Amino acid sequence: MTTYFRSVFLLILFAAGPLGAVADQLTPGSTHRLTFRDVDAKEVSTADGRVTILTVVTRDNGDTSRVVADLVPDRYVGDEKYRYVTLVNFQRKLAGAFQGLTRAIIRNRLAAEAKELKPQYLAKKITRDPRNDLHVIADFDGGAVEKLGLSLDANGITVFVFNGAGKLIAVWNDVPPGNSLPKALAEAE
C-alpha cells in the first residue's frame, strides 16, 4: 500500500469514528422512519401516524424519564394520537443472561405504572388498559441508540419529538426547558 493510499485509508477510518459505530445526528425538520421493538415485542415506529415523544436514558439516570413524562400536558395522556416511549441505553454493559430478567422487571414496573394511570383514564372515560400505551425499549446491543445518532457511551438523556410522519420536530440533550415540550407537541399535531 502506498503512503498516499495508507493516509487516505487512515483519514477515512478516523473520520468515521470508532468503526463507524455512530450514525449521523438527527436534525429537526428531517424525516426519520425508525422502527424499534419494546419489551413486550411490540413494534414502535416514529412514522405510524402517532406523535412520539422518545426519551433516551441510561440505567444511571432512568428516573429522568419520569421527569420528562411529567412535562407532558394531561390532555395528551391516554390520547391514542400520542405516545411516550422510554429507550434505556444499557451501553452494551448487561450480560445476555440478565437481559430476559431485566425485560421482566421492566414489564412489572410498567404494570404498576398502568395501575397508577387507570384512574386518570377512567376520569377521561377511556376504557382501554393503560398498560397497552406504555412502551420501554431495552437497548442491550446499542442498535436503537445508533439509529438515533447517539453515542453508546453517552450518559445524559436525550428527548425527541416526532410527528406522525416521522418528521423530527424537536430534540433536547437534557430535560426540555420551560414549556418547550408542550410547544413541540402542538407543532407536531
Topology order in helix (H) and strand (E) letters? HEEEHEHEHEEH
User: Helical region count?
Assistant: 5
Number of strands: 7
What is the strand content?
Answer: 15-25%
Distance between termini?
A: 56 Å
Q: Whole-number radius of gyration?
A: 18 Å
In terms of per-residue confidence, which ranges show pLDDT below 50 for 5 or more consecutive residues?
Answer: 1-23
How would you sum up the major sheet? 5 strands, mixed
Give the overall pLDDT as a whole number: 87
Can you characterise this structure?
- With 189 residues, the protein is an alpha/beta fold.
- Helices cover 33% and strands 20% of the residues.
- The chain has five helices and seven strands.
- Strands 5-4-3-6-7 form a five-stranded mixed sheet. Strands 1-2 form a two-stranded antiparallel ribbon.
- A hairpin with a 5-residue loop joins strand 1 (35-37) and strand 2.
- The longest helix has 28 residues, at 96-123.
- It is globular.
- The N and C termini lie far apart (56 Å).
- Residues 1-23 have low confidence and may be disordered.
Would you summarize the structure shown here?
This protein is 33% helix and 20% strand. It contains five helices and seven strands.
Question: What would the keywords be for this entry?
Answer:
189 residues, alpha/beta, 5-stranded mixed beta sheet, two-stranded antiparallel ribbon, 7 strands, 33% helix, globular, disordered N terminus
